[in-house]
Amino acid sequence: NKTRQRSLLVVVAKAPKPGDVKTRLYPALTPLEATDLYRCFIVDRIKEISMLKGIDLAISYTPAESKEYFARFTSNGFHLFAQRGNNLGERLNNIFVEKAAEGYDAISIIDSDTPDLPRSCVQQSFKLLLSDRVDAVFGPCHDGGYYLVGMRKPHPELFQDIPWSTDSVLQITLEKAEKKRIKTKLLQQWNDLDTFEDLLEYYQKYIYKLPEKDWAGKETFTFLSNLEKIAQRFKSKE
Questions:
Q1: Taking Cα atoms as reference points, which of 224, 215, 212 lies closest to residue 47?
Q2: Are 26 and 34 in contact (CB under 8 A)?
Q3: Reduced to 3 DSSP states, what percent helix, strand and coil does the chain have, rounded to the nearest 5?
Q4: Is the pTM of this model over 0.70?
């Protein structure tokens, strides 16, 4: 039995089923294209963070019956468990409650919508939690949400009465933290890929990257470069 690490990173992910994932990309992408794209997000995410040392790794998936899809990643060293709760806040809080009870000193939860996020951002979250005695760490997104939340112990109040999927998620969360004297720090801002405009920006960002090298987010970029509707938008811009 390998010794348990002090830190745990949990990726929250949905099973890639047409109609269930990345629906905000319709009608620019078909349900099938959006699903294939999200599958690339997951592959990129897993690949990048599999390289982290000294951190336990897990995937918390939804829906509950989708374990089979994620089982392929156990060979990368990921533990698997289903998400529990009626909304995002409950699901996130339940992860902190369950995993803190298992004895972890720091837990970070990360989404699957920032495929090019470098693992250094994840490392930074643990560094802040373990060394600076910060209570909670957030990775802000440009749309007002967050791509990462890390804590040393559960703070349920940070997940209650939050207007999820709006542009004030992080702002309201930080206001609650301040009221409760929960010490927070922010990581660098990173774009999550929710809209067609986000995809065009992402494509543009990596268009001159060397294809033979390995880099965070490469699978997603390769998929986008094979989408006619992305490539064409760039021809029309030139």
A1: 215
A2: yes
A3: 45, 15, 40
A4: yes
